[in-house]
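pasting for ref
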Amino acid sequence: MPIILPPSDSQDALVDGIAQALAGDGTLLLQGGTHFTRPGVNKHIAVGAGGLRIGSTGPSPLPPPSAVIGVTQAVIRRPDHALSASTPQFNYGLSFIPTEPTPDEIAQATWKTFTDPGGDTFEFAVVMRGSIQISRLLIDCNMQNQGAESLPPHAAEHSAMLAFGGFRYSVTQQATPRFMYVGFESVAVDHLGFINGGFADDFWVNYPGGPFYPQINQVSITNVSSGPRLNRRARSQLEGRSASRGGIQQVDLVTAADRGRHDEFCDGRQGHDDGSQ
């Protein structure tokens, strides 16, 4: 059974509801009204092999309204003054990463050797699992109430409202360090409306570097629209090499193409780099 979450003034209820859904069948439905994100720097929600589905019981958020007052849609909203004044970067609304590797995944891994540009050598393996689906939500970035206009340019650009990415976990150390990269099988967003953005990415699929790409096997972005914004700075970003397959339909956000990365995102690259090139 899905978890049904009513709106709340709490900054913990949404994240707690997601945790409750992950402990069950992985489905969370938000009722109409406002659901606040939890402030914090580099805070992530770990999603396991069973995946996560977040939707709503209300109407479609499209086209996005000019304000959230009186709306009947389910709204995910960044609280006022949620950006850290001392560390404004990486203050996500919701950021999703895979859970750490299991003992069986580590035992069954095929290890490869990689030397990074700094000359450090380590062994790595890759696991891809779990899917995320997010749909029928209004996303209020609320950047007009963060004090971002007083920050240096680009100081908060990666404080995305929605972020997805693989993650590198350290495993039992051998003579050579070992890391396991865990990525998602798929990420799909559909019927999302973003409002009150600016200064930071609305939607970010991040490429963390190193030998791990694609870190999401498939990304699908459909029927996503942006409403009023404070400025056009850092609207949305899909980092090159993030996904091996991608589909973008009926989207009016600035996407990878606007940053010269559309070819990398949609080139159908398969497999993971072993550092041999």
